[in-house]
Design a protein that fits this description.
single chain, alpha+beta, Rieske Iron-sulfur Protein, Naphthalene 1,2-dioxygenase Alpha Subunit, Chain A, domain 1, 7-stranded antiparallel β-sheet, 9 helices, SRPBCC family protein
Length: about 425
Protein backbone atom coordinates (compact mmCIF):
# COMPACT_ATOMS: atom_id res chain seq x y z
CA UNK A 1 0.00 0.00 0.00
CA UNK A 2 1.06 3.57 -0.56
CA UNK A 3 1.53 6.03 2.28
CA UNK A 4 -1.68 7.85 1.28
CA UNK A 5 -3.70 4.63 1.53
CA UNK A 6 -2.46 4.17 5.11
CA UNK A 7 -3.84 7.52 6.28
CA UNK A 8 -6.71 7.38 8.71
CA UNK A 9 -10.08 8.95 7.99
CA UNK A 10 -9.22 11.89 10.21
CA UNK A 11 -5.81 12.36 8.62
CA UNK A 12 -7.36 12.39 5.16
CA UNK A 13 -9.84 15.13 5.96
CA UNK A 14 -7.30 17.20 7.93
CA UNK A 15 -4.90 17.05 4.99
CA UNK A 16 -7.45 18.77 2.72
CA UNK A 17 -6.02 22.02 1.39
CA UNK A 18 -8.22 24.99 2.21
CA UNK A 19 -10.47 25.95 -0.70
CA UNK A 20 -9.91 22.61 -2.45
CA UNK A 21 -11.88 19.39 -2.88
CA UNK A 22 -11.58 16.24 -0.79
CA UNK A 23 -9.22 13.34 -1.33
CA UNK A 24 -10.49 10.55 -3.56
CA UNK A 25 -10.15 8.10 -0.68
CA UNK A 26 -12.79 10.01 1.26
CA UNK A 27 -15.23 9.13 -1.51
CA UNK A 28 -14.10 5.60 -2.26
CA UNK A 29 -12.95 3.78 0.88
CA UNK A 30 -15.26 1.32 2.66
CA UNK A 31 -14.01 2.22 6.16
CA UNK A 32 -14.65 5.92 5.48
CA UNK A 33 -18.14 5.09 4.27
CA UNK A 34 -18.95 3.09 7.41
CA UNK A 35 -17.77 5.92 9.64
CA UNK A 36 -19.79 8.42 7.61
CA UNK A 37 -22.97 6.40 8.09
CA UNK A 38 -22.33 6.05 11.82
CA UNK A 39 -21.61 9.76 12.36
CA UNK A 40 -23.74 11.59 9.80
CA UNK A 41 -26.74 9.26 9.50
CA UNK A 42 -26.94 7.60 12.92
CA UNK A 43 -25.82 10.44 15.22
CA UNK A 44 -27.25 13.47 13.41
CA UNK A 45 -30.84 14.43 12.63
CA UNK A 46 -31.77 13.22 9.14
CA UNK A 47 -34.85 13.56 6.96
CA UNK A 48 -36.52 10.19 6.37
CA UNK A 49 -39.93 11.03 4.95
CA UNK A 50 -43.00 13.25 4.93
CA UNK A 51 -46.26 13.04 6.85
CA UNK A 52 -48.07 12.11 3.62
CA UNK A 53 -46.08 8.85 3.61
CA UNK A 54 -48.40 7.66 6.39
CA UNK A 55 -51.67 9.53 5.75
CA UNK A 56 -54.06 7.29 7.74
CA UNK A 57 -53.95 5.39 11.07
CA UNK A 58 -52.20 2.08 10.54
CA UNK A 59 -50.13 3.32 7.61
CA UNK A 60 -46.49 2.32 7.88
CA UNK A 61 -43.32 3.47 6.11
CA UNK A 62 -40.15 1.48 6.75
CA UNK A 63 -36.78 3.08 6.02
CA UNK A 64 -33.39 1.33 6.09
CA UNK A 65 -30.36 3.46 7.01
CA UNK A 66 -27.14 1.47 6.85
CA UNK A 67 -27.51 -1.50 9.22
CA UNK A 68 -30.32 0.28 11.05
CA UNK A 69 -33.98 0.28 10.10
CA UNK A 70 -36.90 2.33 11.39
CA UNK A 71 -40.67 2.04 11.22
CA UNK A 72 -42.70 5.23 10.78
CA UNK A 73 -46.35 4.71 11.70
CA UNK A 74 -49.44 6.84 12.17
CA UNK A 75 -51.25 5.61 15.30
CA UNK A 76 -54.96 5.52 16.08
CA UNK A 77 -54.81 9.05 17.54
CA UNK A 78 -53.30 10.41 14.29
CA UNK A 79 -49.85 10.84 15.87
CA UNK A 80 -46.76 9.92 13.88
CA UNK A 81 -44.45 7.59 15.80
CA UNK A 82 -41.12 6.03 14.88
CA UNK A 83 -39.57 2.84 16.20
CA UNK A 84 -36.52 0.72 15.64
CA UNK A 85 -37.47 -2.06 13.25
CA UNK A 86 -36.33 -4.77 15.67
CA UNK A 87 -38.57 -7.29 17.43
CA UNK A 88 -37.94 -7.29 21.19
CA UNK A 89 -37.88 -11.09 21.19
CA UNK A 90 -34.98 -12.25 19.03
CA UNK A 91 -34.43 -9.25 16.81
CA UNK A 92 -36.29 -10.15 13.63
CA UNK A 93 -37.25 -7.31 11.31
CA UNK A 94 -40.95 -6.53 11.75
CA UNK A 95 -41.40 -4.93 8.34
CA UNK A 96 -39.52 -4.89 5.05
CA UNK A 97 -38.50 -1.54 3.56
CA UNK A 98 -41.40 0.24 1.90
CA UNK A 99 -44.99 1.15 2.70
CA UNK A 100 -47.89 -0.91 4.04
CA UNK A 101 -51.00 -0.70 6.20
CA UNK A 102 -51.49 -2.71 9.39
CA UNK A 103 -53.86 -3.10 12.30
CA UNK A 104 -51.01 -4.02 14.61
CA UNK A 105 -47.32 -4.72 14.08
CA UNK A 106 -46.80 -8.48 14.03
CA UNK A 107 -43.37 -10.08 13.98
CA UNK A 108 -43.32 -12.61 11.12
CA UNK A 109 -41.03 -14.96 13.10
CA UNK A 110 -42.87 -15.81 16.34
CA UNK A 111 -45.89 -13.49 16.01
CA UNK A 112 -45.06 -11.19 18.88
CA UNK A 113 -47.66 -8.45 18.35
CA UNK A 114 -47.27 -4.74 19.05
CA UNK A 115 -49.84 -1.98 19.20
CA UNK A 116 -49.28 1.14 17.11
CA UNK A 117 -48.16 2.92 20.29
CA UNK A 118 -45.27 0.43 20.45
CA UNK A 119 -46.53 -1.60 23.40
CA UNK A 120 -46.27 -5.40 23.30
CA UNK A 121 -49.84 -6.77 23.26
CA UNK A 122 -49.53 -10.48 22.58
CA UNK A 123 -47.07 -13.32 22.94
CA UNK A 124 -47.50 -17.07 23.12
CA UNK A 125 -45.71 -19.63 25.30
CA UNK A 126 -43.89 -17.08 27.49
CA UNK A 127 -45.34 -18.17 30.85
CA UNK A 128 -47.14 -16.30 33.62
CA UNK A 129 -44.01 -14.56 34.92
CA UNK A 130 -43.24 -12.83 31.62
CA UNK A 131 -43.61 -9.03 31.83
CA UNK A 132 -44.53 -7.49 28.44
CA UNK A 133 -44.33 -3.91 29.75
CA UNK A 134 -40.55 -3.83 29.42
CA UNK A 135 -40.59 -5.20 25.87
CA UNK A 136 -42.16 -2.31 23.97
CA UNK A 137 -40.67 -1.30 20.64
CA UNK A 138 -37.69 1.04 20.94
CA UNK A 139 -38.74 4.61 20.08
CA UNK A 140 -36.65 6.93 17.91
CA UNK A 141 -36.18 10.68 18.47
CA UNK A 142 -38.57 12.38 16.04
CA UNK A 143 -39.40 15.93 15.00
CA UNK A 144 -42.20 16.84 12.59
CA UNK A 145 -41.39 20.21 10.99
CA UNK A 146 -43.96 21.22 8.41
CA UNK A 147 -44.45 17.89 6.66
CA UNK A 148 -40.83 16.80 7.16
CA UNK A 149 -40.14 13.79 9.38
CA UNK A 150 -36.71 14.19 10.98
CA UNK A 151 -35.26 11.43 13.16
CA UNK A 152 -32.09 10.86 15.14
CA UNK A 153 -31.04 7.30 15.93
CA UNK A 154 -28.62 8.31 18.69
CA UNK A 155 -29.73 8.44 22.33
CA UNK A 156 -28.22 11.92 22.63
CA UNK A 157 -29.95 13.73 19.78
CA UNK A 158 -28.36 17.12 18.94
CA UNK A 159 -30.29 19.88 20.70
CA UNK A 160 -29.87 22.43 17.91
CA UNK A 161 -32.70 20.80 15.94
CA UNK A 162 -34.64 23.46 17.88
CA UNK A 163 -33.10 26.14 15.66
CA UNK A 164 -34.29 24.38 12.52
CA UNK A 165 -37.72 23.79 14.07
CA UNK A 166 -38.13 27.40 15.18
CA UNK A 167 -37.02 28.77 11.81
CA UNK A 168 -38.96 26.49 9.48
CA UNK A 169 -42.20 26.08 11.46
CA UNK A 170 -43.01 29.75 10.89
CA UNK A 171 -41.97 29.64 7.23
CA UNK A 172 -43.95 26.49 6.44
CA UNK A 173 -47.08 27.50 8.40
CA UNK A 174 -48.96 29.32 5.57
CA UNK A 175 -48.61 26.28 3.30
CA UNK A 176 -50.31 23.82 5.72
CA UNK A 177 -47.99 21.10 4.47
CA UNK A 178 -49.51 18.35 6.59
CA UNK A 179 -52.71 18.76 4.57
CA UNK A 180 -51.02 17.40 1.45
CA UNK A 181 -50.72 14.19 -0.53
CA UNK A 182 -47.97 12.62 -2.59
CA UNK A 183 -48.74 13.12 -6.28
CA UNK A 184 -45.59 11.37 -7.48
CA UNK A 185 -42.50 9.65 -6.06
CA UNK A 186 -39.14 8.86 -7.63
CA UNK A 187 -36.23 6.72 -6.43
CA UNK A 188 -32.83 6.97 -8.10
CA UNK A 189 -29.68 5.02 -7.29
CA UNK A 190 -26.71 7.25 -8.06
CA UNK A 191 -23.41 5.43 -8.49
CA UNK A 192 -21.48 7.93 -6.43
CA UNK A 193 -20.58 8.81 -2.86
CA UNK A 194 -23.20 10.61 -0.77
CA UNK A 195 -20.87 13.59 -0.21
CA UNK A 196 -20.64 14.13 -3.97
CA UNK A 197 -24.44 14.14 -4.16
CA UNK A 198 -24.56 16.88 -1.52
CA UNK A 199 -21.66 18.82 -3.06
CA UNK A 200 -23.44 18.80 -6.41
CA UNK A 201 -26.58 20.11 -4.72
CA UNK A 202 -24.66 22.91 -2.99
CA UNK A 203 -23.54 24.66 -6.17
CA UNK A 204 -24.98 25.79 -9.45
CA UNK A 205 -21.69 26.47 -11.24
CA UNK A 206 -22.82 23.61 -13.48
CA UNK A 207 -26.48 24.59 -13.88
CA UNK A 208 -26.48 26.77 -16.99
CA UNK A 209 -24.78 24.11 -19.08
CA UNK A 210 -26.56 21.03 -17.76
CA UNK A 211 -30.02 21.93 -16.40
CA UNK A 212 -32.11 23.61 -19.12
CA UNK A 213 -35.39 22.66 -17.41
CA UNK A 214 -34.30 23.98 -14.01
CA UNK A 215 -32.87 27.23 -15.34
CA UNK A 216 -36.20 28.06 -16.96
CA UNK A 217 -37.49 29.00 -13.51
CA UNK A 218 -34.38 30.13 -11.64
CA UNK A 219 -32.83 33.57 -11.98
CA UNK A 220 -29.25 33.10 -13.27
CA UNK A 221 -27.76 35.47 -10.67
CA UNK A 222 -28.92 33.14 -7.88
CA UNK A 223 -26.42 30.59 -9.15
CA UNK A 224 -23.46 32.75 -8.12
CA UNK A 225 -21.17 34.60 -10.48
CA UNK A 226 -17.80 36.27 -10.68
CA UNK A 227 -18.36 40.02 -10.23
CA UNK A 228 -15.06 40.95 -11.88
CA UNK A 229 -14.95 42.54 -15.35
CA UNK A 230 -18.72 42.51 -15.90
CA UNK A 231 -19.94 44.12 -19.13
CA UNK A 232 -22.31 47.08 -18.99
CA UNK A 233 -25.14 44.78 -20.05
CA UNK A 234 -24.31 42.32 -17.26
CA UNK A 235 -24.16 45.15 -14.73
CA UNK A 236 -27.62 46.32 -15.81
CA UNK A 237 -28.96 42.76 -15.51
CA UNK A 238 -27.45 42.52 -12.05
CA UNK A 239 -29.16 45.73 -10.94
CA UNK A 240 -32.46 44.48 -12.38
CA UNK A 241 -32.00 41.23 -10.45
CA UNK A 242 -31.36 43.06 -7.18
CA UNK A 243 -34.38 45.29 -7.71
CA UNK A 244 -36.68 42.34 -8.51
CA UNK A 245 -35.49 40.46 -5.44
CA UNK A 246 -36.02 43.47 -3.18
CA UNK A 247 -39.51 44.07 -4.58
CA UNK A 248 -40.56 40.43 -4.16
CA UNK A 249 -39.14 40.12 -0.65
CA UNK A 250 -40.94 43.30 0.46
CA UNK A 251 -44.20 42.11 -1.08
CA UNK A 252 -43.98 38.69 0.59
CA UNK A 253 -43.16 40.25 3.94
CA UNK A 254 -46.19 42.55 3.72
CA UNK A 255 -48.39 39.47 3.24
CA UNK A 256 -46.84 37.66 6.21
CA UNK A 257 -44.40 35.36 4.41
CA UNK A 258 -40.85 35.04 5.77
CA UNK A 259 -38.17 35.04 3.11
CA UNK A 260 -34.82 36.29 4.38
CA UNK A 261 -31.84 33.94 4.27
CA UNK A 262 -31.04 31.97 7.43
CA UNK A 263 -27.84 29.91 7.54
CA UNK A 264 -26.74 27.48 10.24
CA UNK A 265 -23.95 25.81 8.31
CA UNK A 266 -20.49 26.35 9.70
CA UNK A 267 -18.32 24.47 12.15
CA UNK A 268 -20.37 25.44 15.22
CA UNK A 269 -23.54 23.93 13.69
CA UNK A 270 -24.49 20.32 14.37
CA UNK A 271 -27.88 20.18 12.67
CA UNK A 272 -26.85 21.97 9.52
CA UNK A 273 -29.41 23.88 7.45
CA UNK A 274 -29.97 26.84 5.16
CA UNK A 275 -33.22 28.44 4.02
CA UNK A 276 -34.13 31.22 1.62
CA UNK A 277 -37.21 32.29 -0.33
CA UNK A 278 -35.97 32.42 -3.91
CA UNK A 279 -37.54 34.52 -6.65
CA UNK A 280 -38.75 32.50 -9.64
CA UNK A 281 -38.14 33.72 -13.19
CA UNK A 282 -40.75 34.39 -15.87
CA UNK A 283 -44.25 34.50 -14.40
CA UNK A 284 -42.69 33.88 -11.00
CA UNK A 285 -45.16 31.26 -9.83
CA UNK A 286 -43.60 27.81 -9.69
CA UNK A 287 -40.74 25.54 -10.73
CA UNK A 288 -42.28 24.46 -14.00
CA UNK A 289 -41.19 24.90 -17.60
CA UNK A 290 -43.81 27.63 -18.03
CA UNK A 291 -43.00 29.19 -14.60
CA UNK A 292 -46.74 29.09 -13.88
CA UNK A 293 -48.37 26.89 -11.24
CA UNK A 294 -48.63 23.18 -12.00
CA UNK A 295 -51.61 22.82 -9.65
CA UNK A 296 -54.44 25.33 -9.58
CA UNK A 297 -55.35 24.08 -6.08
CA UNK A 298 -52.92 26.08 -3.95
CA UNK A 299 -51.60 25.01 -0.55
CA UNK A 300 -53.45 25.92 2.64
CA UNK A 301 -55.52 29.06 2.29
CA UNK A 302 -53.00 30.71 0.00
CA UNK A 303 -54.40 32.99 -2.71
CA UNK A 304 -51.13 34.31 -4.19
CA UNK A 305 -49.44 32.19 -6.82
CA UNK A 306 -46.21 34.23 -6.99
CA UNK A 307 -44.58 33.20 -3.70
CA UNK A 308 -41.31 32.02 -5.24
CA UNK A 309 -39.50 29.01 -3.81
CA UNK A 310 -39.19 28.45 -0.06
CA UNK A 311 -35.92 26.53 -0.18
CA UNK A 312 -34.36 24.38 2.58
CA UNK A 313 -31.09 22.44 2.74
CA UNK A 314 -29.99 19.96 5.36
CA UNK A 315 -27.00 17.65 5.17
CA UNK A 316 -29.11 14.87 3.66
CA UNK A 317 -31.99 16.71 1.98
CA UNK A 318 -33.24 19.60 -0.15
CA UNK A 319 -36.74 21.06 -0.30
CA UNK A 320 -38.57 23.44 -2.64
CA UNK A 321 -41.99 24.70 -1.56
CA UNK A 322 -44.03 26.84 -3.94
CA UNK A 323 -47.60 28.11 -3.66
CA UNK A 324 -48.97 25.06 -5.51
CA UNK A 325 -46.61 22.15 -4.90
CA UNK A 326 -43.49 21.04 -3.08
CA UNK A 327 -40.55 18.87 -4.12
CA UNK A 328 -38.77 17.19 -1.21
CA UNK A 329 -35.69 15.02 -1.76
CA UNK A 330 -33.47 13.18 0.68
CA UNK A 331 -30.55 10.79 0.42
CA UNK A 332 -29.54 7.54 2.10
CA UNK A 333 -26.01 6.20 1.50
CA UNK A 334 -25.91 2.58 0.35
CA UNK A 335 -22.18 2.14 -0.23
CA UNK A 336 -19.03 4.17 -0.88
CA UNK A 337 -20.12 4.45 -4.52
CA UNK A 338 -23.89 4.16 -4.23
CA UNK A 339 -26.51 6.61 -2.92
CA UNK A 340 -30.29 6.40 -2.86
CA UNK A 341 -32.07 9.67 -3.76
CA UNK A 342 -35.78 9.75 -2.91
CA UNK A 343 -37.96 12.59 -4.21
CA UNK A 344 -41.60 13.30 -3.44
CA UNK A 345 -43.91 15.78 -5.18
CA UNK A 346 -46.64 17.07 -2.84
CA UNK A 347 -49.89 18.83 -3.73
CA UNK A 348 -52.89 19.94 -1.68
CA UNK A 349 -54.68 16.92 -0.22
CA UNK A 350 -57.86 17.85 -2.11
CA UNK A 351 -56.16 18.45 -5.47
CA UNK A 352 -57.50 16.14 -8.19
CA UNK A 353 -55.19 14.73 -10.85
CA UNK A 354 -56.41 15.64 -14.33
CA UNK A 355 -58.52 18.47 -12.93
CA UNK A 356 -56.24 20.59 -10.73
CA UNK A 357 -52.91 19.27 -12.01
CA UNK A 358 -51.27 16.79 -14.34
CA UNK A 359 -48.22 14.83 -13.34
CA UNK A 360 -46.10 15.79 -16.35
CA UNK A 361 -46.29 19.53 -15.68
CA UNK A 362 -45.76 18.91 -11.98
CA UNK A 363 -42.67 16.73 -12.28
CA UNK A 364 -40.84 17.46 -15.53
CA UNK A 365 -38.39 20.04 -14.13
CA UNK A 366 -37.07 18.00 -11.22
CA UNK A 367 -37.41 14.62 -12.96
CA UNK A 368 -35.04 15.90 -15.63
CA UNK A 369 -32.78 17.69 -13.13
CA UNK A 370 -32.45 14.61 -10.91
CA UNK A 371 -31.39 12.44 -13.84
CA UNK A 372 -28.92 15.05 -15.03
CA UNK A 373 -27.46 15.29 -11.51
CA UNK A 374 -27.21 11.51 -11.35
CA UNK A 375 -24.95 11.56 -14.41
CA UNK A 376 -22.82 14.41 -13.03
CA UNK A 377 -22.33 12.67 -9.68
CA UNK A 378 -21.40 9.41 -11.38
CA UNK A 379 -18.78 10.86 -13.71
CA UNK A 380 -17.31 12.82 -10.82
CA UNK A 381 -17.15 9.76 -8.58
CA UNK A 382 -15.41 7.81 -11.33
CA UNK A 383 -12.91 10.62 -11.80
CA UNK A 384 -12.10 10.90 -8.08
CA UNK A 385 -11.15 7.21 -8.10
CA UNK A 386 -8.74 7.65 -11.03
CA UNK A 387 -5.02 7.54 -10.03
CA UNK A 388 -4.59 10.86 -11.83
CA UNK A 389 -7.10 12.68 -9.61
CA UNK A 390 -5.87 15.50 -7.41
CA UNK A 391 -8.36 17.75 -5.55
CA UNK A 392 -8.97 20.96 -7.49
CA UNK A 393 -9.60 24.49 -6.28
CA UNK A 394 -13.16 25.72 -5.68
CA UNK A 395 -14.56 28.85 -7.28
CA UNK A 396 -14.97 31.37 -4.42
CA UNK A 397 -17.97 32.82 -6.25
CA UNK A 398 -19.99 29.72 -7.15
CA UNK A 399 -18.66 26.91 -4.92
CA UNK A 400 -18.37 28.60 -1.53
CA UNK A 401 -21.04 26.30 -0.07
CA UNK A 402 -19.15 23.22 -1.26
CA UNK A 403 -16.06 24.45 0.57
CA UNK A 404 -18.21 25.19 3.61
CA UNK A 405 -19.68 21.66 3.53
CA UNK A 406 -16.15 20.25 3.55
CA UNK A 407 -15.30 22.36 6.62
CA UNK A 408 -18.46 21.27 8.42
CA UNK A 409 -17.79 17.62 7.55
CA UNK A 410 -14.31 17.88 9.05
CA UNK A 411 -15.59 19.65 12.17
CA UNK A 412 -18.23 16.99 12.84
CA UNK A 413 -15.69 14.18 12.46
CA UNK A 414 -13.37 15.99 14.84
CA UNK A 415 -16.20 16.43 17.35
CA UNK A 416 -16.58 12.62 17.36
CA UNK A 417 -12.86 12.09 17.92
CA UNK A 418 -12.05 11.08 14.33
Amino acid sequence: MSEVQLKTHGELIRSRQSGHGMSGELFGRQDVFETDVDVFFHKHWILVGVTADVPEPGDVSTVDIGKASIIIVRDDDENIRTYRNVCRHRGARLKEAGKSTVGMLVCPYHQWTYDLDGSLRHTAHMGKNFDPTCRSLIPVHTKIIGTHIFVCLDENAPADIAKLEETMTLRFAPYDLQNTKIAFEQEIIENGNWKLVIENNRECYHCQGTHPELTASFLPEDFGFCPENLSEESLRELEDYKARNATCQASWERDGFIGETVEWLDEDAVTQFRTQQLVIAGDGESQTISTRVASTKLFGNITRRDLGDQHLWTHNSWTHVMSDHAVISYIIPLGPDKTLVRSKWLVHADAVEGVDYNVKDLTEVWMATNMQDKHLVEITHEGTQDPAYAPGVFSPFTEAYVDQFSRWYAARLNAHGI
